[in-house]
């Protein structure tokens, strides 16, 4: 306290243009800066630890064989189920997927392969033969035979898969982000 | 601005009074050995925080315990750091708590009116050792498995009730998934609750009674 009062005239006399920084202010600033650095050193690894798995999502893609093309009927979407496994943390996770295969005609390339995952919130859609549409049970969404939205909340058509036919066998290009 | 917020809070919560009572206490002239209690508290808090973080990935089941720790060490960013702090902090805490006990003993600080501080300190020392014992099993590797086998067998040597006590510890006759699950529960819930409560009493007594002087020649 005494020093602070004394320092004012000192400043005027010896360092007229110097910005005055009292001892208290210096300590406060130093503690603030060091505290921030220490909080960052402790806090950033902690945040990194928690969000780490989210930064390591691996992409995978593969051509999946769906069997002979002629085993699929023409004109009716047919469900095909398969599983894919990957390592999550310490565990092997097996996910199952369903796709609808529609042969529009005898031609090998006249195909439409749709994911059965609703584009709204990922419930599974089913083909209703009598109504000629895909129906989602969760929020009453409907898609037509081409996968386009005809009713309900989905923001986009059902996802399509790239296809190829080799030696009579049907393959789809499965891409997982 | 900060001062205004603090004043607003102080008026309603009495922060200044808490600060004065807890931190602005009168203490006799003492030496560095008197910091061991604060060091123990710091280590307990640090073990608590790193333990909470470890529980995000650790799974207390024989199928997954070892693999989940491998994942923490190799697959998670800074997992090695969090586990390393918890691992070394555990050993350090046992050493510091024990040294704190020795200091109290040799400075005769356990005498009237501080007997209860000593007694809660005994609870804290034993609970700390219990944390070490239960935590040691959780990695579920060869060393922890056999250490716990031997540790629980020692309990079985107690006359008459030893076998029963061993089975209580193991949750059956064998060291099994049941053992791992109950050691985990004791490690993260029972003992931390006991320690937190005992620390509360311990510190209340320290604040109420103050700390003792270093004994002089005439004592």
Write the layout of secondary structure elements.
The complex is a heterodimer of chains A (177) and B (219).
Chain A lengths: L1 H13 L8 H29 L8 E9 L9 E11 L2 E13 L7 E5 L10 E3 L4 E3 L6 E2 L5 E3 L10 E5 L2 E8 L1
Antiparallel strand pairs in A: 1-10, 2-3, 3-4, 5-6, 6-7, 7-8, 9-10
Chain B lengths: L1 H12 L1 H8 L13 H19 L10 H10 L4 H28 L8 H23 L4 H15 L5 H9 L6 H33 L10
Helix pairs in contact in B: 3-5, 4-5, 5-6, 6-7, 6-9, 7-8
Give an account of the 3D structure:
The complex is a heterodimer of chains A (177) and B (219). By secondary structure, chain A is an alpha+beta fold. Chain A folds into two domains: 52 residues; 118 residues, Rieske [2Fe-2S] iron-sulphur domain (Rieske Iron-sulfur Protein). Chain A is built from two helices and ten strands; from the N terminus they run H-H-E-E-E-E-E-E-E-E-E-E. In chain A, the strands form three sheets. Chain A has a four-stranded antiparallel sheet, with no helix packed on it. Chain B is mostly helical and 219 residues long. Chain B has a single domain, classed as Cytochrome Bc1 Complex, Chain C (Up-down Bundle), CATH 1.20.810. The mean pLDDT of chain B is 95. The chains are: A alpha+beta (177), B mainly alpha (219).
């Amino acid at each position: 306290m005494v020093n602070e009062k004394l320092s004012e005239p000192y400043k005027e006399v010896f360092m007229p243009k110097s910005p005055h920084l009292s001892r208290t202010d210096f300590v406060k600033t130093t503690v603030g800066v060091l505290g921030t650095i220490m909080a960052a050193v402790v806090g950033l690894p902690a945040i990194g630890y928690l969000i780490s798995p989210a930064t390591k999502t691996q992409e995978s893609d593969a051509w999946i064989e769906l069997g002979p093309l002629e085993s699929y009927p023409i004109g009716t979407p047919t469900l095909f189920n398969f599983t894919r496994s990957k390592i999550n943390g310490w565990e092997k996770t097996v996910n199952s997927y369903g796709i609808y295969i529609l042969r529009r005609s005898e031609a090998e390339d006249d195909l439409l392969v749709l994911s059965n995952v609703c584009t709204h919130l990922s419930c599974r859609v089913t083909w209703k033969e009598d109504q000629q549409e895909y129906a989602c049970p969760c929020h009453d969404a409907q898609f037509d035979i081409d996968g386009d939205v005809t009713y309900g909340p989905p923001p986009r058509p059902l996802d399509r898969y790239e296809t190829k036919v080799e030696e009579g066998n049907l393959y789809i290009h499965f891409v997982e982000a | 601005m900060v001062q205004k917020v603090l004043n607003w809070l102080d008026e309603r919560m009495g922060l200044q009074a808490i600060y004065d009572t807890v931190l602005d206490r009168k203490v006799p002239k003492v030496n560095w050995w008197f910091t061991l209690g604060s060091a123990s508290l710091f280590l307990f808090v640090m073990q608590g925080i790193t333990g909470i973080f470890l529980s995000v990935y650790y799974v207390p089941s024989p199928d997954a315990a070892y693999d989940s720790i491998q994942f923490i060490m190799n697959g998670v960013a800074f997992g090695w750091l969090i586990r390393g702090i918890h691992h070394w902090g555990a050993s350090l805490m046992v050493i510091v708590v024990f040294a704190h006990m020795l200091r109290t003993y040799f400075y005769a600080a356990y005498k009237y009116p501080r007997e209860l501080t000593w007694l809660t300190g005994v609870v804290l020392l034993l609970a700390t050792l219990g944390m070490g014992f239960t935590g040691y099993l959780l990695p579920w590797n060869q060393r922890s498995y056999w250490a716990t086998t031997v540790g629980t067998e020692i309990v079985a040597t107690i006359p008459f009730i030893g076998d029963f006590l061993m089975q209580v510890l193991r949750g059956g006759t064998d060291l099994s998934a049941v053992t791992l699950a109950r050691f985990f529960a004791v490690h993260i819930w029972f003992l931390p609750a006991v320690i937190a409560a005992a620390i509360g009493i311990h510190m209340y007594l320290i604040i109420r009674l103050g700390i003792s002087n270093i004994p002089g020649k005439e004592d």
